[in-house]
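Supplementary Methods S3. Input chains for the assembly prediction are listed below.
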Amino acid sequence: MEQELISSKELIWRLMIRDFSVRYRQSILGYIWAILPQIVTVAIFTFLARHRVFDMGETTMPYVIHALWSVSVWQLFAGCLIGCTNSLVNAGSLVTKINFPKEALVFSAIGQALLDFMIRLIPVISVFIWYGFVPSWSSLLIPFVLVSVLLMALGAGFFMAIINLVLRDMGNVISMILTFGMFLAPIVYPPPVSEPFNMVNYLNPFSPLLIATQNLLAGQELMQPQLLAVMFAVSLGIFLLGWRMFHITMPRIAERA
Amino acid sequence: MSDDVLIKVENVSKKFCKSLKQSMLYGIEDIARDALNLKTTSNELRKDEFWAVDDVSFEVRRGECLGIIGRNGAGKSTLLKMLNGIFMPDKGKITVKGKVGALIEVGAGFHPMLTGRENIYVNGAILGMSKKEIDNKFDEIVEFAELEEFIDMPVKHYSSGMYVRLGFSIAAQLKPAILIIDEVLAVGDRRFRLKCLNTLQHRLQEKIAIVFVSHDMPQVINICDKAILLEKGHETKIGLPQQICQDYDTKEFLDTFEGLNPSGENYISSSTTFKDVVYGVEITNVYFKDKENERSAEYRTENEIPIKIKIKNSKKREDIAVWISIRTANDILIHGFRKKINKNYISNIIDIDMVIPSNTLLKGVYTITCGIHKGINWGGRVHQLDQVLYMRIKNNDKFCDGIVNVKPIINI
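Predicted structure tokens for the full assembly:
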């Protein structure tokens, strides 16, 4: 299984380049589309927060920074998951007619989400500068947490990709869940402290990872150190399990796609 | 398995499901069984399933080319996908020695927005070539495809011929031990097809094995050493391409013929494709003279074939021409000619006797088409009967093949 991955690393890279080249070839605004929706969402929530339409509580960092950063991390997860889920269906006849490691298709789907994340760092950093916010040194640990986020998304993505091939509803189901999901994690609001709302902090597997990045960014103490460790293990587990299952079932599924 | 044999297929079968919803459910069932390591239901047919490939076996050696022919839906592509490793057989075993290259979907992974150049890299990567390999072979690929001028144009503006040329050209650079080709050479002009066949011949000389699926019988006869006929998933014939193709053509002709011309109806009226009813001349009967009112007959090459055409004429006229053509089962014209009926012979009933001389037609199925024109100089059609008669010719001579005995004079 690992052998296949290593031998197809060039293919994965090539597919990522392909997706990247194609994406904005015929559009005018180009890469702005990668960041615009999230900026608009954050702007709306900031406006609502400032005028106390919703009372979301105090965030440790200025609200805009909290929201913009959290949305970016969320999109990394969501974009990766959706990309993976749809990767096989979008590949069309490649799946049914050519013999090559199909894992490459799923792995290459994260390229898009990663690139979008990088692009989103531009408005994030701009907001940092605007507010004179200097991320603390612990921010250097954030990439480790992000790796965990990616692993979780990939793992779930492997499962979803296979199911989506057979039951085309899956793509839509995932989209819908992710739309609601944005409110089930402390993205546009700070991590709640009161029962029962603080369930979102620990029932949602994404939350501990998100909260950790928020803590690291602000230079605070980690709010949920044990849960975070558990989540690292869980994300690795989901990844390995998903990959294994994909590997076993892919041949069977090529017939049904 | 001896060193020589590169592909060995033993009693292989594959089933598919007819209904889409059932297929999805079976898909989930199969995944669950695989994941939990339970026994699979490969051996029996569940509801709505059918065998697309049923108990097929063959071997292909180094330097050999195997042709697979059959109707649409006979299971050819499914068999190829199993050879390619995309499908797993439900029954039986496939053993393959060496890397398998496939020309099944030409231009796989091509994205219409990318240029030819970019697509070469994508397609090459999918087929397993490294960037370095592609860099080295890039110029060769573009040259073979004759696309030097258009290589930096987005592929969506390519004609279908250019598309195929590029796709084939990339795949042709692979040097796999086994090459599988699925009907891709149908597109492309004559020159390109010749180039492709040449490449295949070269590869065969380099001792690879080729499995070739095509509907183009001449191609199969040209390049394959042996051929298999698949009918509804069953391997019904295996042997020399010449033989298999001819049998197949004959069978196809007879099947199609029966389908379009149901017996029981008067065959003169059912084979009429054009009739000018007011003109007043019509062919009333055509038959084999020595077989009494039959429209089909069997002969040997050595026999003479006598044919009678009866024409009825209801007006006084000066000029009628009759035309007759003999065609192969594939509708290739062997000989067509027009003959003017001398006005002395134009009366109410006109009898025409025609004899195809002995030792002219070789083994095969041939049809007679005849009609009446207003004049020898193409005055217009009056009555036309398509494939009104057909004859099956048998030939004992093992040392000759083809359609017509050209009767060459040889001095050694």
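Chain A touches chain B through 28 residues (CB under 8 Å). Chain A has a mean pLDDT of 85.
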